[in-house]
Amino acid sequence: MKKILALVLTLAMVLSLAACGAGAAPAESAAEAAGSAAASAAEEAAAPAADGAKTVGIAMPTKSLERWNRDGDYLKAQFEAAGYAVELKYSDNDTDQQNNDIQAMIADKVDLLIIAAIDGDSLSQTLADAKSAGIPVIAYDRLIMNTDAVSYYVSFDNYTVGVLQGEFVKNALDLDNAAGPFNIEFTAGDPADNNAGYFFNGAYDTLKPYIDEGKLVIPSGKTTFEQVATPSWSTDTALENMQNTLASYYSDGTVLDVALCSNDSTALGVAQAITSDYAGDNTPIVTGQDGDIANLRNIVDGIQTMTVYKNVSDEAGVTLDVAKAILEGKTPDGSLQLSAEAAYDTSSYDNGTGIIPSFLLVPWTVTKDDLQKLVDTGLYQWDSENKYLESVG
Length: 393
Ligand code: GAL
Known about the structure:
Elements (H helix, E strand, L loop, with lengths): L1 H19 L7 H19 L8 E6 L5 H16 L3 E6 L4 H13 L4 E4 L8 H9 L4 E4 L9 E7 L1 H15 L9 E6 L6 H19 L3 E2 L7 H4 L6 H15 L8 E4 L2 H14 L7 E2 L6 H8 L5 E4 L2 H16 L14 E4 L12 E4 L2 E4 L4 H5 L3 E3 L6 E3 L2
Parallel strand pairs: 1-2, 1-3, 3-4, 4-5, 5-12, 6-7, 6-8, 8-9
Antiparallel strand pairs: 10-13, 11-12, 14-15
Helix pairs in contact: 1-2, 2-3, 3-12, 4-5, 6-7, 9-10
The protein binds beta-D-galactopyranose.
Beta-D-galactopyranose binds next to loops.
């Protein structure tokens, strides 16, 4: 059974990769096709959703970023393999659409909702309706704010993601010993995404002592999250912003040592701007997060320096553990048996209505030298030339 499911997942990923080509975000229809191939084949393989099976509604933000395609595929396959029926919707990064999509799932009487919010502040009314209908809600990856309808939050330790990026820079430049000064620019994420501030703060706090002592300098003067935020985590916006920064502050030959980017979609744009518009002959350090295939290629090619990897197959697995317990009438807590390492946290995430109990998985740093770690997860493999990584499933 497991073998069949693995084959199905492999096939779906191969299809989606073939459809989008390495590096590009999957086209909506190709990704959908791959997703439904996985879904229908997984149904056959696992024979789930017998009459009376519970249904889980899954709301993902967008197909335009590789990671959410993975999340949706892994969640759907894992829940179906566990015998649940799944309704999976992507909302094209449009908050109105996400509200409508979730309303439709409430109308369909799903038994539980798993939501990665587009805008953490825009779902209060819809989730009040979910609560009235007695539907428990798990906030997936991104915390949903200002609603008392969220039962649990499953994510990674978001502040640590930023700390890992900051520490990477600190070690790479040997900031404790080198004389410096070094020049750095920050690119942060979407202000509507509650995670984005955590990523920025984790990185900035780690580097702040060196900024304060003048060993790290920010020539653009853009030191706050608001000044460097990137709506929708858009690659194009990150590219444009970096081009502007380079034109305004680096065209006189000023050296750029580090472009600290909060995630891979922004790193993609920033690396492109550096490749096309940066005149210096050094290779700036570029950070990222997610391990998207295009960025893993850039890491091999030396255009990006590191990424913070988040195993979203594990994130889906822990979400299943928590959902299953809720649907069995239990109250998940630190004693819950989990399929992957995650800390049970009851102090870090207050969504404005109180602390939301959280299960936080562990992110790690990946560089060119240890890409094999990704292969060891079973989710990636080397291509036929043993040069770049591709998805397994
Ligand atoms: C964050 C997520 C990151 C990244 C980003 C862009 O919320 O935690 O992994 O993917 O969104 O979608």
